[in-house]
UniProtKB/TrEMBL annotation, chain A:
UniProt keyword annotations, A-Z: ATP-binding, Cell membrane, Membrane, Nucleotide-binding, Transport
Segments for region (Disordered): 1-35
Gene3D superfamilies xrefs: P-loop containing nucleotide triphosphate hydrolases
Protein name: Phosphate ABC transporter ATP-binding protein
ABC transporter domain residues: 41-282
GO cellular component, one term: membrane
GO molecular function list: ATP binding; ATP hydrolysis activity; phosphate transmembrane transporter activity
Organism of provenance: Natronorubrum sulfidifaciens JCM 14089
Superkingdom per UniProt: Archaea
GO biological process: phosphate ion transmembrane transport
A Pfam family recorded for this sequence: ABC_tran
Compositionally biased spans, kind Polar residues: 9-27
Automatic annotation (TrEMBL), chain B:
Organism: Natronorubrum sulfidifaciens JCM 14089
Name assigned to this protein: Phosphate transport system permease protein
The organism's taxonomic lineage, starting at the top: Archaea, Methanobacteriati, Methanobacteriota, Stenosarchaea group, Halobacteria
Transmembrane intervals: 25-46, 81-107, 127-150, 156-173, 206-227, 276-297
First-listed, main subcellular location of the protein, grouped into a coarse class: membrane
Domain ABC transmembrane type-1: 82-294
UniProt cross-references to PANTHER family, sorted A to Z: PHOSPHATE TRANSPORT SYSTEM PERMEASE, PHOSPHATE TRANSPORT SYSTEM PERMEASE PROTEIN
GO biological process, one term: phosphate ion transport
């Protein structure tokens, strides 16, 4: 894995990389320890705009490999926007515009020569609302394999493995050909997780994957996230602080206006944050 | 206190009853006119048909392959007219379904909002052009082009009619299909994009299947429009009721036959005149069936998004 940005700075745009360096903190750097040793994703001075409104201001943080990184903060502070800028899902929003660097293995994904389709094959995504296709469970899980040309060999085995890893196989083993829409909300979300991991991406982005679920289904998803981090780099948005504290290794706290205020080990954020505003937010004084 | 009471209690009939009762009947009468007209048409068709079938056996009508109700020797097999209608319908479907579907996919998935704003109204204008103009277009443009390629083609031919009807119903397919495709929730598109699908893959294997009921319903409605289409085919295909596989031959559709008899001077109590009602009823049943199938497809395969 590329862990230093030395080679990558030559491919990023001069304006954005010239004045920045991985070794020194920038004006934008949040409190805490925004640099990690084994970063898969590095955000450097990332600004995102929707039309004339700026939703993210100079986000500067690293996302470590095979760990769970939680993004927390009050709603509207730009967590989803940041997540979508990692796999360029923001490209699909007409008015969205991104400036600055978002590096994946040192390569700025906003460089002209980056193919967003190829990027998304390496960085899977699970959405806030379960969104299975109106197809069979099997076809849902196999969809990524098909579009990525990984459907040679035993697709069925790959489908079962993915369902197994998403802790869903036991429940749906006998109904792989029935519609994914027939499952309960929690099962649908695990189906979506199985669908995301089936093509074996490197990173999995999850946008409040449990917010639409009941407590039992939520705790299943939480267990799953921890397990997934053994093999995948997981970035999870949540507005549930207990959840972030339970499942994540690193926590990034975004606060109103689209600023990353503090980024550090999860323990540190929850036990002894540097920022008073973060402390207030975590202890529930505002938010 | 007591004043408040009197202003909210009904003085025998409520305000709503007094004001809206009358309006309700106005609306009801208007609706009634439509219903009665439809019933009237059906009754007229059935009555005329009953007279016709007193002279002609239903079996002959439905199975005969020779249609000559006004010129001797008389013959009342409706199949040549049905065949003519079938050729026009199938031929126009071969044009309108691919082109209309592709247009719908383009408008729903590819076109930028600015482009869509121009193309959608243009298609609607296309749909509003009087069909006689399309018939004239077939005679003066499509047929000469066909004749250029196949010099033996006559002035009236099935191909020209099928092509012009096909063009005519493209807006119907594209507009209704586009409505169905646009109503597919973005969550499904995002799911596919998030898995590394291309725009083409998202369009063809997510959006189209998810909107299939609406898309298929648009096909069926367009086909029933093609079956009922009159002026354009009357001008383009001629008046030769015959069962032929050659699209360059002249044919006659059920509708074109009805025009021919309607404007001719056959006497009102002749079998030729009565045949108008039998053919009209046949046409009515066909299009009614198509519309019902379309409704059924739509409700039967309504996708459940939550
Ligand atoms: N598609 C969009 N178009 C316009 N503005 C948007 C869009 N998505 C998000 N925003 C705006 O960007 C800001 C951040 O939103 P979001 O990233 O969804 O926050 P969070 O996920 O933290 O709740 C909000 O002010 C929101 O209104
Ligand atoms: Mg959000």
């Amino acid at each position: 894995m590329t862990t230093n940005g030395g080679g990558s700075r030559t491919v990023s745009t001069p304006e954005s990389s010239g004045s920045r360096s991985d070794a020194t903190m920038t004006d934008n750097a949040p409190l805490g320890s925004p640099r990690v040793d084994d970063a898969v994703i590095e955000s450097r001075g990332l600004d995102v705009f929707y039309g004339d409104d700026q939703a993210l201001h100079g986000i500067d943080m690293d996302i470590p490999e095979r760990k769970v990184t939680a993004l927390i903060g009050p709603s509207g502070c730009g967590k989803s926007t940041f997540l979508r800028s990692i796999n360029r899902m923001n490209d699909l929003i007409d008015i969205a515009r991104v400036e600055g660097d978002l590096r994946f293995h040192g390569k700025n994904v906003y460089d002209d020569d980056v193919d967003p389709v190829a990027l998304r094959r390496k960085i899977g995504m699970v959405f806030q609302k379960p969104n299975p296709f109106p197809k069979s469970i099997r076809d849902n899980v196999a969809y990524g394999l098909r579009v990525q040309g990984k459907d040679d060999g035993d697709v069925d085995a790959k489908v079962r493995t993915a369902l197994e890893r998403a802790a869903l196989l036991d429940e749906v083993e006998d109904q792989l050909d029935s519609s994914g829409l027939d499952l309960s909300g929690g099962q649908q979300q695990r189906l979506c997780i199985a669908r995301a991991i089936a093509p074996d991406p490197e990173v999995i982005l999850m946008d409040e994957p449990a917010s639409a679920l009941d407590p039992v289904a939520t705790s299943k998803i939480e267990d799953l996230v921890e397990e997934l981090s053994e093999e995948y780099t997981v970035v999870i948005v949540t507005h549930n602080m207990q959840q972030a504290a339970r499942i994540s290794d690193k926590t990034a706290v975004f606060l109103t206006g689209g600023h990353l205020v503090e980024f550090d080990d999860t323990n540190k954020i929850f036990e002894n944050p540097e920022s008073d505003r973060v402390e207030d937010y975590i202890t529930g004084k505002f938010g | 206190m007591s004043q408040a009471d009197t202003t909210i209690t009904t003085g025998g009939s409520s305000i709503d009853d007094r004001k809206n009762g009358f309006i309700k009947y106005v609306f009801f009468s208007c609706a009634l006119v439509t219903v009665l007209t439809t019933l009237g048409i059906i009754l007229v068709l059935i009555q005329g048909s009953i007279e016709f079938f007193q002279h002609v056996s239903i079996v002959e009508y439905l199975t005969g392959t020779n249609w000559s109700p006004v010129i001797q020797p008389y013959s009342y097999g409706v199949l040549p007219l049905v065949w003519g209608t079938l050729i026009i319908t199938v031929g126009s479907a071969l044009i309108a379904i691919p082109v209309g579907t592709a247009t719908a996919i383009y408008l729903s998935e590819y076109a930028e909002p600015r482009v869509r704003k121009v193309i959608k109204p243009t298609l609607e204008i296309l749909a509003g052009i009087p069909t006689i103009v399309y018939g004239f277009f077939a005679l003066s443009f499509i047929t000469p082009v066909i004749q250029f390629v196949f010099p033996q083609t006559g002035t009236f031919n099935a191909a020209s009619g099928a092509i012009v009807v096909g063009i005519m119903i493209i807006p119907m397919v594209s507009s209704l299909s586009e409505d169905a495709m646009s109503s597919v929730p973005d969550e499904l598109r995002n799911a596919a994009y998030g898995l590394g699908a291309t725009k083409f893959e998202v369009s063809t294997n997510v959006v189209v299947p998810a909107s299939l009921s609406g898309v298929v319903a648009s096909y069926i409605l367009a086909l029933s429009r093609a079956i009922g289409e009159t002026m354009a085919v009357t001008l383009a295909v001629g008046m030769t009721p015959q069962i032929t596989a050659n699209p360059l031959d002249s044919i006659q559709t059920m509708t074109a036959y009805m025009v021919q008899i309607g404007i001719s001077d056959v006497s009102v109590d002749s079998i030729g005149y009565q045949s108008l009602f039998a053919v009209g009823l046949t046409l009515f049943i066909l299009t009614l069936a198509m519309n019902m199938i379309s409704l059924w497809v739509k409700s039967r395969y309504r996708e459940e998004y939550q």
